[in-house]
Amino acid sequence: MTTDFLALQAQFADFIRDPAHAPVPKGCDPERMQLYHQLFFNNIDGILENTFERSRAHIADDQWQELVRTFFSTVPQHSPYLVDVPARFLEFLQEQTTVALPEPVLELAAFEATLHECRMAEDITLPEATESLPDDVFDAAWQPHPQGVLFESVYPVNQADFSLDAVPAEPTLLWIQRDDAGVVQIYYLSAASARWLVLLDAHSGATPGASLAQLARELNVAPENLTGFARAQLTDWIADGVLIPASGSKENASSA
Amino acid sequence: MNTQSDRVSVGIGLRRGSLMREIEATQPELDFLEVAPENWMRLGGAVKRQFEALLSRYPLYLHGLSLSVGGPAPLDRDFVHALKKFINQYQPVIYSEHLSFCSDNAHLYDLMPIPFTRAAVRHVVERIHAVQDVLGQRLTLENVSYYTAPDAEMNELDFLTEILQQADCDLLLDVNNVYVNSVNHHYDPKAFLDTLPVERVRYLHVAGHLQLASDLIVDTHGAAVADPVWDLLAHTYGRFGAVPTLLERDFDIPPLADLMLEIKKIRSVADDALGLAPRNDREPVMVANA
Ligand SMILES: [Fe+2]
After folding, report:
1. Which is deepest, A16, A110, A184, B23, by most CB within 10 Å?
2. Interface predicted TM-score (ipTM) of this complex, two decimals
3. Three-class HEC string of B247-269
4. Domain B4-274 adopts which CATH fold?
């Protein structure tokens, strides 16, 4: 009498995940089951090594092995898409306590995961700009591109050789977005421009004056002192596709 | 009869990156491109537009990875419906998958052999029917390579033919997998091929492998096709006719020109086996140097 095939399947998968603790499935060759484990493990390790290439370089080999092994053997993957695994690994890195990882390495890993997500993102249907745009950028309503990501880190994670030891005086603020050619672009933001992007998003549908007025209040400056900065910033963001025309807004129609 | 239509269709797998750029730039003489739907279903931006541009030139074959048709957990119906949407959108010539399981209650992203038991046959047949019902088309399933299998009631060949018959589905015959398994599990690959139902074979795969020991080959898709597999491929055409054939290459991918030499060899192996006259070499037309 053979063992129930469902039990055999469970044994097979359990052994692949954790050969140190699972028994060899009934009827299987132990050495070849080890080969299965190694092939499956290498497949996952490969995509993680690729996605987290820079943070990986800051983690000792035995620690990395321990991390991937623990992830592979204990974290169930419910997505049929292999490209979703790096995001799960990042969550695992942030929650796990087996290997103590320095904060800048975790932030670098989050940055790399964000680049991966932007590269792989599905297309979304953008709101259609129904009317032709006015000549003055201040007369139209804009919203941040919904696939862009505002990324904030204590460390300059986008610089290849940033020091893990020094905490810079200023945080690093980045806007990460895939361009029309499919390349993931990274834009540097000042604290003021990052805040304004957040406010533009919150006031999505309104012309930029509303969010700029709020920014001026927060910065405790007169709105007219920000006009030069705002016009240059808007022009750049529109040219780069960071801002796109907002659509279907009453506020926009009345103020235009 | 026009002998052209008797000739074999040959394709390669499309992968993002340098291979895709080379295909776009040189528009090589291929009869189709194969992709894994899981790697393209959620694509966006430039790469999606490039993919669609290639489809105006090349017919599409789909070869799935994550269906887990032999899996123990309930079928992922959301996933099957997403597949259906992709299939409807891009109208592939064939959607094929693997006769294996790649998940228990969670995904492992690689292929495990289904235990060769009668209860497993019933289970898999039921699931094939369920998938076929949603997709509204026959499934084409691939014989997979394996290194060791759990307690069995039947051999690989009986398991495979039972499922083809009971599920009334088609076979993607991977000739390299037949060779790999024949070495790993000590059987005669030609006898195996000669027992398969001719009318069910809709698609062929051929690939390179890595031999680790005299009785152990790993199905890597990371090397050129090996001599014994070329021999087996000729035997396959002799029995099954001009079945569309994919050259599988997933790792250590060489320049496209090298893959095209293997494509050319597939065509000549098929022509020989089918008794067709050699082709007038249609070399790519080069812009003449002044
Ligand atoms: Fe294959």
Report:
1. A16
2. 0.93
3. EECCCCCCCHHHHHHHHHHHHHH
4. TIM Barrel (3.20.20)
